Automatic annotation (TrEMBL):
Localization: Cytoplasm
Start and end residues of each Cytidylate kinase domain: 5-213
GO molecular function: kinase activity
Keyword annotations: ATP-binding, Cytoplasm, Kinase, Nucleotide-binding, Transferase
UniProt catalytic activity: CMP + ATP = CDP + ADP; dCMP + ATP = dCDP + ADP
A Pfam match: Cytidylate_kin
Residues binding ATP, per UniProt: 9-17
Underlying gene: cmk
Name by which UniProt lists this protein: Cytidylate kinase
EC number assigned by the record: 2.7.4.25
Family (UniProt): Belongs to the cytidylate kinase family. Type 1 subfamily.
Amino acid sequence: MNISVAIDGPAAAGKSTIANIIAQKFNLMYINTGFMYRAVAYICMEKSIPYTDTSSVCKVAKSLEMRFKNDRILVNGRDLTESIKKPSVSNNVSNYAAIPELRKLLVDMQQKMALKCNVIMDGRDIGTVVLKDTPLKFFLTASAGERARRRCRELKEKNIPAEYDKILNDIIKRDYMDSHREISPLVKSEDALEIDSSNLSISEVVEVISKYIIENSR
Ligand code: DC
């Protein structure tokens, strides 16, 4: 039987950092589903296809072959990992991610990936929709202020200018959009283990998750 681990939570809660470490530790394929929504948004923006043109957006999504290699995404053979993290994509992706037909297509792809190998997936609807039958579900949170501080630090380390107030506002706006959309909003699955990482280090979060995986996948 395949092992599938689901990690959901709001933007900048540290999901990808943690998922990446757990993937290596347990030899799982890491699938960052946010990257998939970002890749579709990025290609649509490149082709000037607005999120309101649902059928063209879906046509684009169907034409994309997405593959994951460690923490990178290859889209039709192109490594788009850095391009899709740009602020222009971050500020528009929620609109694309709210399209029901697009979500259906991407959820389908994600479920097929989970059938093929042992995976850890992070996103917003993994425990509630994509991997709803897995016993290994986590909901990773941190206060909006702490998430904004972490994002600021991350950008500054890369010598990218970062304004705390603007980052905090963007995070609050994205949380609202992700939690209030009609289809698959960001909510904690009832059976997920909630971890508030505001006062925990990365290794402390990894320890809690590792222990839970070992205890619950026997
Ligand atoms: O985790 P992220 O910031 O890279 O996600 C990008 C966007 O995609 C964000 O607006 C939430 C959305 N998303 C989603 O709706 N469902 C997922 N499974 C993953 C991401």
